[in-house]
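User: Let's play a game. I give you a shape written as tokens, and you guess the letters that built it. Ready? Here's round one.
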């Protein structure tokens, strides 16, 4: 898969639905640029997926939907890896004091 790639997700795309019973997740690094300026980036961002694969185009749509990004513009996917639930580090760090 040739990454990075940039996509322009359709705001009317099928929404992302959390599935905590999913056996697989996609772990990704990405950047979302906003139409009104600014951007958000993530590393090792995990989303549940149906089955054991997802296209980068669908991942871009899932990111925008999961994060409820109303002014999302282009989404650049830098990396993505399919991982089995539990076979990667996804623990929540202890809260700061």
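Assistant: Ready! My guess for every position:
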């Amino acid at each position: 898969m040739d990454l990075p790639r940039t996509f322009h997700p359709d705001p009317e795309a099928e929404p992302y639905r959390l599935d905590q019973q999913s056996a697989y997740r996609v772990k990704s690094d990405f950047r979302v640029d906003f139409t009104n300026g600014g951007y958000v980036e993530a590393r090792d961002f995990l989303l549940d997926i149906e089955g054991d694969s997802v296209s980068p185009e669908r991942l871009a749509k899932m990111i925008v939907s999961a994060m409820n990004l109303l002014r999302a513009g282009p989404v650049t996917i830098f990396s993505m890896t399919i991982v089995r639930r539990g076979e990667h580090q996804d623990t929540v760090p202890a809260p700061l004091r």
